[in-house]
Amino acid sequence: MTTVQDDLGDVEAGDVPVRRISFTINGQKKVAEVEPRLLLVHLIRRGVGLTGTHMGCDTTNCGACTVLVDGKAIKSCTMLAVQADGHEIATVESLATASELHPLQEGFKEEHGLQCGFCTPGMMMAAKQLLDANPDPTEEEIRWALSGNLCRCTGYQNIVKSVLWAAAKLRAEAQA
Ligand code: FES
Ligand code: FES
């Protein structure tokens, strides 16, 4: 079991209330003891050790921390870890298999959708939610789906092209 507490300052660890939660992340069942104030992004990064989920702003603006909870894209800096109790989380690490990239990852490679790469995990998870629901999105629908994700390198054009590339590949795979 993982125990994760936030920066305790001068407080003794034993004086801090914790709550036991269980959740599934990328198909693996986990149990953790967390402080009620702990953010989901910290549970994912520090507790589970999955550092693909980035934290950019910590204020619900940038979307770098986007993960899927029960298939819905959420900003994990805006959700408490205790709220994940009983739910299923998917992070960017869930996309690739041991031998193959996910079409979204291929698309970002083919269409040069990543620059510094900091926003990329969040972009991919927001795009995954879109493509799971809408396999043939328009450019406008992609831009709308990614509107909660900021790229500080400001190159949105190739990000949109990357998602279009992935959508086409996923459709081709579905028809094969
Ligand atoms: Fe969560 Fe920026 S770190 S929205
Ligand atoms: Fe640098 Fe998006 S690629 S923030």
What features would you describe in this structure?
The chain has two domains: 3-94, Beta-grasp domain (Ubiquitin-like (UB roll)); 103-175, DNA polymerase, domain 1. It is built from five helices and six strands. It has helices at 40-47, 103-110, 120-133, 139-145, 156-175; strands at 2-4, 19-25, 28-34, 66-69, 72-75, 88-90. Strands 1-3-2-6-4-5 form a six-stranded mixed sheet, sandwiched between helices. A hairpin with a 2-residue loop joins strand 4 (66-69) and strand 5 (72-75). The protein is elongated. The model has no long low-confidence stretch (mean pLDDT 94). One FE2/S2 (inorganic) cluster is lined by residues 114-120, 151-153.
CATH architecture of the largest domain: Roll
Mean pLDDT: 94
| CATH class wording of the largest domain | Alpha Beta
Strand order of the largest sheet: 1-3-2-6-4-5
Number of E-type strands: 6
Sum this structure up briefly.
The protein has helices at 40-47, 103-110, 120-133, 139-145, 156-175, and strands at 2-4, 19-25, 28-34, 66-69, 72-75, 88-90. It is α/β, with parallel strands linked by helices and 176 residues long. The protein has a 6-stranded mixed β-sheet, with helices on both faces.
